[in-house]
Amino acid sequence: MNDYLVRGMSMDGFVKVVAIRSTELVSRAAQIHRTTPNATAALGRALTAASMMGNMQKVENGSMTLQIRGGGPIGTITCVSDAAGNVRGCVTEPQVPLVEKFPGKLDVGATVGTDGTLTVIRDLQMKEPYIGSTELVSGEIGDDVTAYFAQSEQTPTACALGVLIDRDQSVKVAGGYLVQLLPGAPDETIDALEEGIRRSGAVTKMLEAGLTPEDILGQVCGALGVVFLETQEVSYKCYCSRSRVESALISLGRAELEDIQAEGKSFPVECQFCDTVYEFTPADLKEILNKI
Q1: Which residues lie closer than 8 Å to 238 by C-beta, 6 or more apart?
Q2: What is the radius of gyration, based on Cα positions, of the chain?
């Protein structure tokens, strides 16, 4: 089954909702970066959140970057989503050690850390991007996204994320949901939503039980009901290209490029987000130098 997300509204129009199945894109990220289980779970949760947040922008050709620096062993997590919800991401240290809260439960908070910030950069195709940043509250990422929306964008939000790692260290299931109260929501709507979230339980258990994103939103919205507005397939998608890498090499400056060319060997450049390697021969480097 391909990954996809679904957006909708509660029947009373006071709650905006989105849910996602992200199993394949998280698996692809783990394959590219050769992550250990804790790093897979942390990066997977961040990619899942970034996909939903990027899709919610609905700005053509826009993008959204989610960056988490918590001071933990994984270092910095960086995820980028396009306007549809296709994502790519990377971490500073993909080979972090196994840390569990209890047997069978990965401690993502300890892997990410709590001494740092969650930063969102929204490129809305305007003169300057919007940048918002909040302090981390748990390092579990879902809680931190919830806190970001409440503090930086003044939007009451509940975000739940889950990545279940199988015994063979593959990704068994991944996904999540994000629900937001709209201005003017009455107390009965808030109470019904809180009850739906409480009754639904952990998103990982819902995913493992085979619930679809539509099913999950139905559980979360409960008595409020839900109307589905859009379904969008999403994937792990990198936009790197040889021409973009050339531009990056040009930005190094003539002196450094001349030093690289003087070694007389091919110069490989690997994309930080995917496993594509671009080889530049001495002749290629000479051509680039001629362009400067």
Answers
A1: 88, 271, 273, 274, 276
A2: 21
Specify the fold of 242-291: CBS domain Like (3.90.1280)
- Taking the whole predicted model, whether its pTM rises above 0.85 is answered as yes
Domain boundaries, the chain: 4-233, 242-291
What is each CA distance from 167 to 136, 164, 171, 271, in whole angstroms? 30, 10, 9, 30
In whole angstroms, what is the distance from residue 85 CA to residue 6 CA?
A: 11
What is the distance of C-alpha 284 from the center of its chain?
A: 35
For the chain, counts of helices (H) and of strands (E): 10, 14
Q: Are strands 117-123 and 105-106 parallel, antiparallel or unpaired?
A: unpaired
| Cα–Cα distance list, 253 to 241, 277, 280 (Å) | 20, 21, 16
Each residue's pLDDT tens digit in the chain (292 positions)?
A: 799 999 999 999 999 999 999 999 999 999 999 999 999 999 999 999 999 999 998 777 889 999 999 999 999 999 999 999 999 999 999 999 999 998 889 999 999 999 999 999 998 777 788 899 999 999 999 999 999 999 999 999 999 999 999 999 999 999 999 999 999 999 999 999 999 999 999 999 999 999 999 999 999 999 999 999 999 999 999 999 999 899 888 888 888 888 888 888 899 999 999 989 999 998 998 898 988 8
- Per CATH, the homologous superfamily of domain 4-233 is Hsp33 domain (3.55.30.10)
Nearest residue to 116 (alpha-carbon basis) of 144, 156, 149, 150: 144
Question: Residues 6 or more apart from 277 whose CB is under 8 A from it?
Answer: 268, 269, 270, 271
Pairwise CA distance, residues 9 & 283, whole Å: 57
